[in-house]
Write a structure and sequence with these properties.
5-stranded mixed β-sheet, D-Maltodextrin-Binding Protein, domain 2, 2 domains, 47% helix, alpha/beta
Length: 322
């Protein structure tokens, strides 16, 4: 009898140890996506420095593997989150608002950056948005539904025109393709952001339509981070690590731009000195600015079917701003 009890005890201990070992070997995963350009610098820094992994390890004593994916549009990120292939990502504020209102299953967990937007033209006869209305002159911007498209609509309304008055003029192009098409005369206008707007401003054959830059400034939210409601609701420690990691990326740009630029300059195709100068032309902070105002505008002008009822319908509870 004693021998049977001893054997049973050994078996139970073995099962416990194997179960414990299996649990210890499990590594949690977090899948994120971001796009290209200077506006995503805090995310690039967080990836390079392992800030999210570090925050999670410090809080829990456990490991997390963060997978980063580069995608070409907010629409692709929306698809990934809806399919359960991504836990979060970084995109323009307008596609993020669209995703929230369509029930993709996420909210905004942080602002990332604000950047200069502007529309340049090669046409000497075009000096305002009203000069484009009713013409077939083409306007290059990223795509329909992008933040650039919404900014154009906002500028049109602020200048007495319908928000969709120039939709038929839009040609979808990536920022660098739009810039080269503008400079070669393939399109009449290009609505773009940093750093392309600064490069175009250096071209003496181009001039700016200032209504666009006035409609959405560098201090307004441009790129935001979104996280799935599943992540937020079921794994608060990992969600908090995500927020802390991105905040550290933002803080590094503001506290030590030289160190930050050493990380992001090469991927952006700039020297460290150029990158630091471009940081100074943008704004990097976690609080949102005029987010709800933009959501209301989008609802009132048919860019989304239903505007959110409040600011809190768009963001998680930790987010501050308006």
């Amino acid at each position: 009898m004693k021998r049977r009890r001893a054997l049973l005890l050994i078996m139970l201990l073995g099962t416990f140890m194997l179960g414990g070992c299996g649990k210890a070997e499990e590594t949690k995963t977090l899948s994120l996506a971001y796009q290209y350009g200077l506006a995503y610098a805090p995310a690039v820094i967080a990836e390079h420095e392992g800030y999210i992994e570090e925050a999670y390890r410090k809080a829990t004593g456990n490991e997390v593997t963060v997978t980063w994916n580069q995608m070409s549009s907010g629409a692709d990120i929306n698809t990934g989150i809806a399919a359960g292939e991504l836990d979060g990502g970084f995109m323009g504020v307008a596609p993020a608002i669209t995703g929230v209102t369509k029930g993709v299953g996420y909210r905004i967990f942080s602002n990332l950056s604000g950047q200069r937007h502007g529309m340049m033209t090669n046409d000497a006869g075009v000096n305002s948005l009203k000069d484009l209305a009713g013409t077939d002159k083409q306007i290059a911007l990223v795509n329909i539904g992008s933040i650039q498209h919404i900014i154009l609509g906002k500028a049109l309304v602020e200048n007495g025109l319908d928000a969709h008055a120039l939709d038929a003029n839009i040609v979808a192009m990536k920022h660098p393709d739009g810039m080269s098409s503008l400079e070669s005369g393939i399109v009449s206008c290009h609505l773009t952001s940093s750093p392309y707007i600064f490069k175009e401003e250096e071209n003496g054959e181009l001039h700016e339509l200032t209504e666009v830059s006035a409609a959405w400034t560098v201090d307004d939210s441009f790129i935001v981070g979104v996280a799935s409601e599943k992540l937020h609701d079921t794994d608060p420690e990992l969600y908090k690590a995500l927020c802390e990691g991105i905040q550290r990326g933002i803080d590094l740009i503001n506290s030590d731009p030289a160190k930050a630029a050493a990380i992001t300059a090469e991927p952006d195709g700039n020297t460290v000195e150029e990158e630091i100068a471009l940081y100074g032309k943008g704004s990097y902070h976690s609080y949102t600015s005029n987010l709800y105002e933009l959501a209301v505008f989008m609802g009132e002008n048919g860019f989304v079917d239903n505007a959110p009822a409040s600011y809190r319908d768009i963001v998680f509870d930790n987010v501050e701003g308006n």
